[in-house]
Amino acid sequence: MFPSRNKIITLCICCVALSILPATSFGMKILKKGDTVGIFYVTKIAGAEADGVEPGQRLCYRCRYGSRPIVMIFARKTGRRLTDLVQYLDQAIAVNPNARLKGLVTLLGKDQRVLKEAAQEVADTALVKEIPVAIATEQGIRSNQYQLPEDAEVTIVVAKDSRVVHTLVFDVNEIDLATIEGEVSQLIR
Asked: Which residues span the domain enclosing 100?
């Protein structure tokens, strides 16, 4: 018994459609260049002492920063490479005030107590002055907003004028600092 011609055509169409969609290993779309950067709420834990936001305050930093260039780091795991990245970004913001560059670190996960401790440790170890370190107040960041791959340890969204310039995904121990430095130098020009 052979499959009908309609079934074969339907199968072919589905295969083509799935092959052209940007996707993670779970088949979920990921933010791509030109996508609008949406709002999301976090709770500030530490860092950015002069931003007028108290630790424990809930807000949308992306909204607060408007269309300024921003590097948003979403992390499910922490480690030395993440700390190095945060420290680099914090220093880049400090020495380039005319670029109006902003940064934000958001830790993702389910256990709020563990996330708060990890966020404080990242802020303390990286000695952040310019970048807020926060935790997601929603259950992670809903996939329909930022489309973060659930299997990614670190996702970095680079945006300017409220649009995505680049999205990068790394394992926490494999963060490519040179690539991030290149992205930041493009933003501060």
From this structure: 31-187
